[in-house]
Each structure stands twice: as structure tokens, then as C-alpha cells.
Description:
There is one protein chain. The chain has 277 residues and is of the alpha/beta class. Helix content is 36%, strand content 18%. It has one domain (6-272): P-loop containing nucleotide triphosphate hydrolases (Rossmann fold), CATH 3.40.50. Strands 2-3-4-1-5-6-7-8-9 form a 9-stranded mixed β-sheet, sandwiched between helices. Strand 3 and strand 4 (83-91) form a beta hairpin.
Amino acid sequence: MNSPANSILLLGESGVGKTHFGAQLLKRLMKGGGRLGMDGQATNLEPFEAALESLNEGKSAGHTATSTYIDSVWPVVNALGRRAELIWPDYGGEQIKSMIDSRRVPNDWRTRVRRAPAWLLLIRLQQTRVRDDLFSKPLADLRSTSLDNRDVQMSDQARLIELLQMLNYVGDVTAEHQRSHSRLGVLLTCWDELAFDGTPAEALEERLPLLRAFIRSNWSTPSVMGLSALGRSLSKSERDIDYVSQGPENFGYIVMPDGLHSPDLTLPIQLLLGDVQ
């Protein structure tokens, strides 16, 4: 955390909760009391103003426009007085889907990949599709499946692996460099809707085992945590009175790797910034 700038490449398709997490994280940094706090004036907060206003009214935030990509710079400090500039992006998740579907990484995304020392992958397990393939069904069963009018699509875990492979390639990250230097965090979002009793790593292993194996084989110390940015479901039209009276910064939690809950939403960021003491 001693470097002048730390950029986290936030990776997540539509509907995983990037905007809610960014707004709630910003609230936590401003309020203080967590592992990280705000250390000066944040810049370019326009992308989060609408989301903050909605949460203050006890409502869920709207969807980020597809074409949007705006970096907001947040100066942060930890309990030991170590400072960094956290560059936090807000963008439409369709951009990630487009990259996977087209297998092309636009030039502006190439620049972001090469500049970011840490990646944070947001996955909403409830909306992932797990299709039968060689890893889930014997060859004999697949051979007997009719191909007539069959819509062949890549499973979501294969798509996410494809994304990580593409970004590694454009970032010119060799396997040796990747395991020893780059940092990867995985956040399983909307944890309150998942109804899973185990740890986040166990949830990822159960739902997306191929992706879990790929991550473990390519990063030496990946972190897997759960996230409930809001703590509960909010409506876009009806106000949640508790949110209005208590403030949105008092809701939401992180599920630590050991399964314990913490209200400190800055923990995954602290870990990715490389200062876990």
C-alpha cells in the first residue's frame, strides 16, 4: 500500500452488483471505522451519486449504461497510516459479455488490464448456468444426446475461464509472473440470496468447480469471499424504512474465507492492495 497508485480491475457482467458494492464501499470509506478509510477528497464521484441517493432513500440503484466506463479516484489510508490511491471503475457489465462473446479485447480495456496490479472478479452464483459437458456426464450419455435443434452454448464457468485467459494474454502475463506477482480476488455477490451454509470457496467449488480449479492452478494466493453489499433485497420503487432511518452504511457484510461475517466491506480491497497485516 506504499505505492502512489493502486488500480483494481473490477470484472463483472451485468447484474452482479458492481454499482451497489461501489456505492456501499464508498460510504464505508467516508464513514471510517474499517480497515480502510478515506484520506482526502475523492474525485469523479458522478457515477456513484445516483446510486448513493437511491440507497439513502431505501431503494436499489439503477443499471449502469452499457457504454459507461468512468474511473473514480479514492485516496485511502489504513489503520497503520499507509496511504494509496484506489482507482475504482464504474461501467456497464455488457462490456464484459461483449468481450467474451466476440473474443476481442478493446484497446482501452487492454490498457486497463496492463495497468492494474490486482483483479477483483464478481460472480453472482445464482445467475450462472451450469450445462452438462465432459466434466459432468459420461461420454456414453453425451453420445446418446440428439443434436437436432440443439442450442449449443458455452457454460458460464467456461466463459469466465475464457475471460481470464484473454485478459492474461493481452496483459502479457506469463504463468510464472502471474502466480508470483498478480493478485486475484473473487467475490460471490448477493450472498444473502444464496442460502449456502459453507465457506465462499466451498460454494464456488460446488457450483463452478472447473473455474475454481483454473483459479487455483494459475494464482498462488487467490482470495474467495462472499459479499452482500446491501444485506437484503431492495425495491426500485418502494422504500425500505430501516435503510432510511439507519443509513445504508449500516447494512451489508463480507463473508470471510473461513465463513465468518464482517460488516467491513473494505476487507477485500485491503487484501488486494497487498497489505493484510
